[in-house]
What does this fold into?
Amino acid sequence: MARVEITGVAAGGDGVGRTESMVVFVPRTAIGDVAQVSLTKSKRFARGKLESLDIASPDRVEPPCVHYVADRCGGCQLQHIAYAAQLKAKGTIIADALRRIGRRDIGDVSVDASDAQWRYRRKLTLHLRRTNDGWIAGLHPYDDPVAVFDLRECPITEDRVLDVWREVRPAFDYLPREIALRVAVRLLDAGAALVVEGGQAWPTAERMFAAVPSLLELWWKPDGGRMRRVASRTIESQGGASFLQVNARVAEQLRNHVITRARAYSPVRVVDAYAGAGGTAMPLATRGTTVIAIEYDAEAVARFESRLRAPSRAIVGKVEDHILQALPADVVLLNPPRTGVDTRVTGALQNVSSPPRAIIYVSCDPATLARDLSRMPRYRVASVRAFDMFPQTAHVETVCELVPEVT
It folds into this structure.
């Protein structure tokens, strides 16, 4: 047992302190806490478990979700911290990553608040486990990535999503006959989609679909296979399996910011890498800019490519396979998954003979953003703006605007 003062918040949401010259990471703590902590040490740092508080941080609040405390739910990491302090912590996490990993000299980073701190999620993915007493559907405890507790409430999720989940639960026996599955409810414009991952055979899919009237689409990704739509009440796909914006209002603010910054350079040619369903490419292309949109998901591309007028076009494939052919461009947009961009992408941008006037990089992970920036030293950071897409969690969206260094 050690007495630890928490002085920071790490990227994953754990409080950070020191004891015996060793860094300690303690979940469910806040800056200003002085806590009694049991330690599990490794060579370079220690993991801590909060046992009791000697002094409670002034930033502490009572978490409203019963699962957060009783089941140690890992879906949220920051419910015990006041919202203003959450925003400050996220800004510090971004700035620290860009300085330490990205080797960029930047000032403090502020985070735009979400107008909804609760009931904002339009998608809820649960882990399902079959037991002798039936199904458990829930999330992992933050300190046990294998266990699953049964989730009945989630205050960051829209009521409409939870209502659909309540419809789905009585139909669990129509799911694939597996011990474990991953299942998501996603809101659509006029209903919902259910996305099931796991299993090798699903002969009862139609019965599942019929048992849940709120569903417009049913999707399945079998083990080792590709995602496909197995049932629908509409002729055309509503996009139930891809590119849903979990927090639609903040996503719109972020997208508008990206479009505004791209247009500030009056670009003739834009490369929109990781273009998704075309939400950024389409507005840019409507003003006469030639947009080359690159996206690996063929279904997503099919939803917008017919509306791109030549010479704008969409390319289905990996960005790293097509970026060299798409360059040069006035502006390059990067919006990769959490793992960041491939080294071939940063290499192409670092070494291209005619660099873009701006790279606008949208990141959901400050550490991978910083790593990728470290691979492109020819560009300096012109601006950083962050958006709190996921209140109560440690996740944050960052828009980093890069321009070539003047030599």
In short: The mean pLDDT is 95. The first helix runs from residue 66 to 70. The chain has ten helices and 20 strands.
